[in-house]
Design brief:
The chain is mainly β. The chain has 1 helix and 20 strands. The chain has a 5-stranded mixed beta sheet, with no helix packed on it. A 4-stranded antiparallel beta sheet has the order 2-3-4-5, with no helix packed on it. A 4-stranded antiparallel beta sheet has the order 6-7-8-9, with no helix packed on it. The radius of gyration is 19 Å and the shape is globular.
Length: 257
């Protein structure tokens, strides 16, 4: 198994070596009408700046779509809870909902129509990523009480289990337009690693931040840049950016596809 090691020196060169640069951004806050709390961290944004996420009001938890300043609440029919997890560039949305029996299901919202996504035999299913081709990745429960301890890929309405070599449990978080998948897995010693699945779906790369005690890969863009979270020896969590290296050892910038 290949192992991708992230150099902290390289990260320092990317982000700067000293001080704090002032962010040259305009920040816009958003909260769906009537919401008590909201977030987009479990949601996403596409190239057309359509944003999905979830919010809580006095009636429960709902997904939302934010388009040109207008909110649309997303509620799977007859569900007691709905969350929107990701949106692709064609406007397809994936997320999850709980039915009246408190069973967790995935869904895809396409052209205004909801479709349930359930891995056969699973106790719960949660899609987490969708690319421009409509390929969907996520996690599912193997048995009641477990928390998304196996990963799947949904292609052409067929499920494929993602098995990372050496894993005990694993989970897929995102897929980019070239079809590269990132996520996390736990090994037999209980150590958590990130992973990248590329090529024809059989080339796995382990992602471990140097000197970390655990690494989780959350998102990957079309240039192969990966962001995630790692824990240091003191148990503190930090973010990371993993930049793929080209053949001469240099970092490949995002505009060089």
């Amino acid at each position: 198994m290949k192992r991708l090691l992230l150099g902290m020196t390289a990260l320092g060169l990317i982000f700067g070596v000293t001080g704090h640069a002032k962010a040259d951004y305009t920040f816009t806050t958003f909260d769906p009408p009537g919401s008590i709390s909201s977030n987009a961290t479990g949601g996403g944004i596409n190239d057309a700046a359509l944003i999905v996420g979830s919010f809580v009001d006095v009636y429960g938890t709902h997904g939302y779509l934010l388009r040109n300043g207008e909110y649309t609440a997303l509620n799977f029919p007859d569900a007691i809870l709905t969350r929107a997890n990701r949106i692709n560039d064609s406007g397809q949305i994936v997320g999850n909902y709980r039915d009246a029996n408190n069973i967790l299901h995935g869904f895809r919202l396409r052209d205004g129509q909801y479709t349930t996504i359930d891995v056969p035999g699973a106790d719960g299913t949660e899609p987490r990523g969708i690319n421009a081709s409509g390929l969907i990745v996520g996690g599912y429960d193997l048995a009641p009480g477990m928390v998304f301890f196996h990963a799947f890929l949904l292609r052409d309405e067929k499920f494929t289990t993602i098995d990372v070599p050496g894993e005990v449990h694993n989970d897929a978080q995102d897929i980019n337009d070239p079809g590269e998948i990132v996520g996390r897995y736990d090994d037999a010693d209980g150590i958590r690693h990130g992973f990248l699945l590329s090529g024809d779906g059989d080339s796995y790369t382990t992602l471990d931040v140097p000197d970390s005690t655990s690494t989780l890969a959350w998102k990957i863009n079309d240039c192969g840049l990966i962001v995630g979270t790692y824990a240091d020896a003191a148990g503190s969590n930090h973010g990371f950016l993993a930049t793929p290296n080209n053949n001469d050892g240099g970092n490949k910038p995002c505009n060089e596809k």
